[in-house]
From TrEMBL:
InterPro entries: Lipoprotein_NlpA
Major localisation: membrane
Name of this chain's protein: Lipoprotein
Record's keyword terms, sorted: Lipoprotein, Membrane, Palmitate, Signal
Gene3D superfamilies: Periplasmic binding protein-like II
Annotated localization: Membrane
One Pfam family hit: Lipoprotein_9
Xref: PROSITE patterns: PROKAR_LIPOPROTEIN
Membrane topology, record value: Lipid-anchor
Signal peptide feature range: 1-26
SUPFAM superfamilies per the UniProt record, alphabetical: Periplasmic binding protein-like II
Amino acid sequence: MGKKGIFSLASIFVVFGAIVSGCASGGTAQAPDTKAAAQGNAAGTAKPTKETTLKIGAAAVPHAEILNFVKPKLKEQGVNLEVVVYDDEGQLNPALKDKQIDANYFQHVPYLDSVKGEKGYDFAVTTKVHVEPIGFYSSKLKSKDEIKEGARIGIPNNPSNEYRALVLLQQQGLIKLKDGLTTYEATPKDIADNPKKLKFIEADSATLPRSLPDLEGAIINTNLVLEAKIDPKSALFREDSKSPYANVIVVRKGDETRDEVKKLDAALTTPEVKKFIEDKYGVAVVPAF
C-alpha cells in the first residue's frame, strides 16, 4: 500500500476514534444531569409533609387515652399531637388562656359557660367527643332504696356539675328543685322538696372518690371514677345517654380555623374512635358523635 493509502486509512481511524470518543464524552457529561433530574422528580413526588405540633392539655382518663389513640393517624397527616396531662383540671383553662397549650379537652359546655364570664375566657368549642354519665356511688349501700333519712350525700361544688348532680337526684325522685332554673346552676339552697332530709356535702370533685367511706354515697364524674379504679358499673344509678354534658375540644377564639385543629376534630369523630371508646370504657364513656 502506498503512503497516500496509509495516510488515508490512518485519517479514517483518527476521525472514527474522535467520533467514538466524542460520543462517550457526551454520554458521560449528560449522565449526571439525567440522574439529577430523575432524583429531583422522585423528590418532588415524595416530598414529606411539613410537621406541625399541636399541644393539647387534657385530663388523664379518658381524655388523654383517647387523644393518644388518634396520635398516629394525625402523625401521618403532618400533625405532631403533644398531649399534656394535668392532674389539676382547674389549671387547664388558665393554661389555654395563657397560651401554654393550643387546646384543651376535659370539660363540657355548661361548665365552660359557668366560668368563662368570671374568668374572661375568650374560647371557642370545636367538636363534641364523648359523654361521661355521672353516677351515684356508694361503698355502703347496694341500691337506691337503702338511702335513709338524713343520709350524707357528696356532690361536686363547681356550679355546673353541682346542678347536674342535683338534677340526677331529682330524676330519681329523691329531691325536687325549684322551678325556673335555666342557667345550669343550682345549689342545695335551690331544693324545693327534700322528703328524706338528705344532707349534702359540697366538695371538690376530685376528693369525692376518697370521701366515700365517710358518706352514704356521692355523685361522681366518671373520669374520676376511672382514675380511682372504681368499677363504673357499680353505680347505683347514673345519667342516661341523653345527657347534654358532652366533653368538648376547646381552643382560643380564632384558632378553630387552624388546619391542625380541624384535623384533630376529624380524627376524634371517626368510627374507629367510637369503637375504641365503646370497647375500652363500656357504660362509663359514651361517644357523643
